[in-house]
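Notebook B, p. 112. Complex prediction, attempt 2.
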Amino acid sequence: MSVYDSLDSIAEELHKCMKCGNCMAVCPIYKETRQEVGVARGKISLAEYILSGETEMTKGLGSRFSLCTTCMACNTNCPCGVRFDKIILAARAESVRKKGLQPAKKIAFTALKMQRVFDFGMKAGSIFQGVALKNIPNRHSKLARMRVDVGIGKEKVFPMLSKKTLRSEFPAVIKVKNPKLRVGFFTGCMINYFYTDIGRAVIEVLRENDIEVVIPKFQACCGIPASVNGDVASARTLAKRNLRAFERMGADALVVACSSGGTAWKHVFGELLENDHELKALADKWAKKSYDISEFLIHQVPFKKEGLGRVARKVTYHEPCHLNRGQGISKEPREILKSIPGVELIEMKEPGRCCGMAGSFSLVHPDLSGQISDRKTADIQTTHTDTVATGCPACRLQLQSGVENAGFDEEVLHTVQILAESYRVGKEELIHSK
Amino acid sequence: MLAREVLEELVRVLGREYVLTEQEDLLTYAYDATAAMKHHKPDVVVAPLTTEQVADVVKIALRYRVPIYTRGSGTNLSGGTIPIEGGMVLSMLHLNKILEVDQDNLTATVQPGVIIQALNDEAAKHGLLYPPDPGTVTTATMGGSVSECSGGLRGLKYGVTKHYIMGLQMVLANGEVTRWGGKTVKNVTGYDLVALFTGAEGTLGIITEIIVKLIPAPEARKSMLAVFDDVDKAGRAIAAIIRNKVIPATLEILDNVTIQTVENFVHAGLPMDAEAVLLCEVDGYKEVVQREAVLVERILKEEGAVQLKIAKDDKERDLLWLARRSALPALAQKRPTTVLEDATVPRSKIPDMLKAIRSIATKHNLQIATFGHAGDGNLHPTILTDERDAEEMKRVHLAVDEIFETALALGGTLSGEHGIGIAKMKYLDREFGKAGVAALRRIKKALDPYYLLNPGKIVRRD
Ligand SMILES: Cc1cc2nc3c(=O)[nH]c(=O)nc-3n(C[C@H](O)[C@H](O)[C@H](O)COP(=O)(O)OP(=O)(O)OC[C@H]3O[C@@H](n4cnc5c(N)ncnc54)[C@H](O)[C@@H]3O)c2cc1C
């Protein structure tokens, strides 16, 4: 029985918790609110009371269960090995089953499923977004701020929608001479619509390593925004569409440059489709050959070191929760950074602490998300670096927003962008030396 | 249920944001870290930001006779924060500032919501240390640990919380703000109320500021682990170390059941048939540590340790401590409910206590693992059970009764560091007699005539 289907599925998980409260030491939300309901122990108790019949699921409980960035820091610090990430998913799914989805989220997730509408909305957005968003001058990228507060505050900085989506910029198959491998690229929404620069860097680096890149046109949203908020039906639809899209094109491996996407392909699709024989097998097959881009470049390729040019950057690395704790990938991005000539890696205090973005969490709890972000921003500032590298577009957005609001000069990039930059410089160096 | 005007007055003092009244929030203050203890929901949770607000809240509670359950992080193991009579939970977590580290007087002044580790991080910047280190240093508050007089691993050499508390600001049950003690080493003015309020479990007053003593952080440390095939030999080794005038910072013991469980859990390399493992750490100046380490090593060998490991660096040290650190979590994974006691005996009685616990386990057909602070006589017999099994829980309660009887018969005490709370209330007269308990009650009534502060804990109303 999967966590998405019934609260009973986590009864034993709940029972493992001995209420020692160790989760309080690491929970980013609890650190801000200092209320018991903010931390895992509090929400575990609430789930227990629901299961024992002491209380019923209420709208209020639903909103308490939304107080989690799913950063999994409590999992790691739990002496009893409680998987709180499972508990929160089950509790949210139960809340949606009993009380429905919050209206704002409902609209968003329906749109995510309706790819074409979404595509149009985003494209129209890129033309009309000037109405709602105000450009802010920034040396590094196109950023914008809300002109009017639509309920998420005016603090948040957004990247401008790209004029062209990544997937419309490239053909479905990007050929190379003598391909070593054929790799499917799952772009995810943020890279497709906002951070196309990350997507281009992924393609550039793969081609540089003689890898043919396949970008199925009909891939969809990874569905994580839906599944973490309990909208299991939407998440299932998206999982199926993605599996079919990639299966149709075929590939030796699948890469993602986004931590939600990686989690989806490696773990969530299989869990969602547990009761569907045929699709479960397909999900398992793809899970086995899905890789985060840094993991892929270190362990599967391994990426070419010759031809790397000098990139003079002082870099600090922020660990995306779902890459680090979610997929155990933490050394790989650092290894990539360290292999780039000229890059100096300076660690920040607690690089693994959540940035507070957590997808729609930052929309539902903008103030809290901002407070969590402020701590991260302060940690970044004290490293006196000029670049923050990370492995997830959602984190990049949050970090950029934090840095912009704090008003210091720091570029926020995906690790793979710095690697692509190095290959590019390497080529120029070669031309100049001739 | 509280009258509407009570809530209105609380909101007037604290503001809406700091008065929680919704069921969904109240339910999360119904429990603490105590196993197999009935939870109880409060009627309201308030979270003051200042001492003045605490005083105002107490005055409101006094006027309407609302019970006040003061709460830090809720990690105590005796039911100390469960609001069994309803009323108000007073969360101290927003009073969380370190007000001062005074390097000349070697003191720090903190608010009660400060986490112990935060104080230590601050002290470490000045090369100083606040030694009390319960297993919950990264989560427990200063107010909670002062109120429980928490111990920890360093008790043998450095003592426990009460040895570091120099002054307290207290809000009394009548809402008045008072100060006791201060930064002076010597102070005999009046009764020693700092001592009385330390370990009072929130039943006599509310702590709003704490002055603690700091010490210079030790320069070096050395850890070793010794395996014994006989509990008595381990006991003799403990006595011999002390007799040779070495006071280790920590001297911990794990019994056979614990060793087996831990070994299965983390594979720390302990022999499964070992009857006892001793973990010892000496600290201080480099030269002293060198000398003491050699001495301890010799004693352990002479007393018949069958295996001895000495950590060469911090990495090896962490490995040795892995077994001890994993004890509770490993045991907790074995069965759903972990009943952890802390009956304490004079250190010379440790072997007797270990053997008695083992026969109690056999008699009641229970799994009891014992580990703990052998150096200070504070053992943690841990009963592994399942609170959903009513029949087994009956046997658990019988075993707990007998563990307490044994500790008292050996000249020990009911609780070394976890406090009385609800959990051990009924055993008090076995340690103090009727007259003793009556004296406690008179103190309670003198300071809190209406039983407003943490009612239902330590002493029963007559
Ligand atoms: C895994 C685990 C390991 C532990 N290890 C140890 C150990 O090694 N040694 C040890 O001694 N204990 C240990 N404990 C017990 C517990 O952590 C300590 O008692 C801790 O100091 C309690 O702090 P707290 O902030 O959680 O207090 P709480 O549990 O919130 O409160 C404890 C008591 O203090 C009162 N109180 C809290 N704040 C105030 C205040 N400001 N004014 C007046 N009264 C107040 C409460 O009413 C209650 O009676 C352990 C607990 C766990 C779960």
